[in-house]
Design a protein that fits this description.
The protein contains 1 helix and 10 strands, in the order αββββββββββ. The protein is mainly β. It has one domain (about 15-95): Elongation Factor Tu (Ef-tu), domain 3. The strands form 2 sheets. Strands 1, 2, 3, 4, 6, 7, 8 and 10 form an 8-stranded antiparallel beta sheet that branches. It has a two-stranded antiparallel sheet with strand order 5-9. The longest helix is centred in the N-terminal third of the chain and has 6 residues, at about 5-10. The model has no long low-confidence stretch (mean pLDDT about 85).
Length: about 100
C-alpha cells in the first residue's frame, strides 16, 4: 500500500450511495444511474427517462427508505439547461422540496 493509501485508506467498509426511485402516479419515470444528495436541499439524479418530464413537475421519490414528493427544479441534457425532455433522453434532474408558489 502506498503512502496515500496508508494515510487515507479507511479500514471500515462504506456503503455505496443508494439509488433513488423516481415515480409519477406509481409509474417509474426514469432508470436512475446515479443519485447525489444535496444536504438540506434535495437530490440530483441522473439516468434515462422512461416518461416525459418537465421542470416544476411534482414527482414521488423513494430514497433511503423514505418516499416524499419533490419538485423538478432543473433539468440538464449534455450540460444544457432545458424545460422538458422526452423518453429515451439521458438527463440530470435536480429535485427539491415541494412548495407552493408564494404571492
Amino acid at each position: 500500500m502506498g503512502v496515500l493509501g496508508r494515510l487515507f485508506g479507511g479500514k471500515g467498509k462504506t456503503q455505496p450511495p443508494a439509488l433513488a426511485v423516481v415515480r409519477r402516479a406509481g409509474a417509474e419515470v426514469m432508470r436512475v444511474g446515479d443519485t447525489f444528495v444535496i444536504s438540506g436541499r434535495g437530490l440530483t439524479v441522473t439516468g434515462e427517462l422512461l416518461l416525459p418530464v418537465r421542470v416544476d413537475e411534482r414527482l414521488d421519490v423513494l430514497h433511503d427508505g423514505k418516499e416524499r414528493p419533490l419538485r423538478v427544479t432543473g433539468m440538464l441534457i449534455d450540460k444544457e439547461q432545458v424545460e422538458s425532455a422526452v423518453p429515451g433522453t439521458k438527463v440530470a434532474l435536480m429535485l427539491s422540496k415541494w412548495q407552493l408558489p408564494t404571492i
